[in-house]
Amino acid sequence: MRLSCLLINWLRKNSEMKFPNLQHLRDHKISWSDHGKRSAKWALRMQIAAIKLGIHSLFPWVFVTDASEEIEKLHKEMVVACTTKGIQNENF
After folding, report:
1. pLDDT, position 92
2. Which of 82, 77, 91 is nearest to 28 (CA)?
């Protein structure tokens, strides 16, 4: 049996995740590709903010508010994305 099959079988047995679980996409009324694009975009922006924060930790006069401002923007976008798609999530 190929390694990928073994990994998938192990994940199925040892994970609460169902394969594939599309309920999350249905709940948010978004396609798989749109969800992937939006999530990848947010992940990239978080990584850039993390890099700026790392630089700020060494040089406190650089990127003083960039990371916190980006996190606030991302949070607002995520709240809007959830509420405009019909999802009201109390965690946001």
Report:
1. 40
2. 82
**Per-residue 3-state assignment (H helix, E strand, C coil) for 3-64:** HHHHHHHHHHHHCCCCCCCCHHHHHCCCCHHHHHHHHHHHHHHHHHHHHHHHHHHHCCCCCC
What residue spans define the domains of the chain?
A: 22-84
The C-alpha angle with vertex 89 and arms to 50 and 31, in degrees rounded to 5, equals 75
Question: What backbone torsions phi and psi does residue 8 show, to the nearest 5 degrees?
Answer: -65, -45
71 within 8 A of 84, measured Cβ to Cβ: no
Q: Which residue has the higher pLDDT, 26 or 70?
A: 70
pLDDT tens per residue across span 20-57: 677 777 887 888 888 889 989 999 999 999 999 999 99
User: Which tokens go with 31?
Assistant: 């396609």
CA distances from 84 to 3, 24, 53, 59, 78 (A): 41, 15, 31, 39, 10
